[in-house]
Write a structure and sequence with these properties.
By secondary structure, the chain is mostly helical. Helix content is 78%, strand content 0%. The longest helix has 24 residues, at 75-98.
Amino acid sequence: MSVVSQVVLQADDELRYPSAGELRSIAEFFQTGDIRVRIATTLAENEKRIVEQASRQLWQKRPDFIAPGGNAYGSRERALCLRDYGWYVRLITYGIIAGDKGPIESIGLIGVREMYNSLGVPVPGMVTAIAALKDASLALLSEEEAAEAAPYFDYIIQAMS
């Protein structure tokens, strides 16, 4: 949920006008809108490149994943992994656009550990994959944009760790 929605809902729940501090946070949200849109655009336009680069990095670090018996062994399994990696890039753009980690939590993290465990996917491997996605993504961004985007990747990494 965006900061605007949060402020409006909280003020309404308390039957009051938004405070000066809340209005400042809304103004800041709008001031950072351009950078958040630029980041989301860059990530969306480069999703395939990001996923390919991150997966190469992951397979180099963890060749056991693509070796016989590994979770990404075989074209079908590997395609499913790459699909998930793209999904995480998209999920991160949702959080960046909203300026809040709430969409990441509600759309993508509730039950993720249980799901991967039930599928036999090593969660530490997913953490390594998200870190690789972070590296590939931040390499495409300016220093200011990377500083804005990094916490969203870190949030997923922390939640899975």
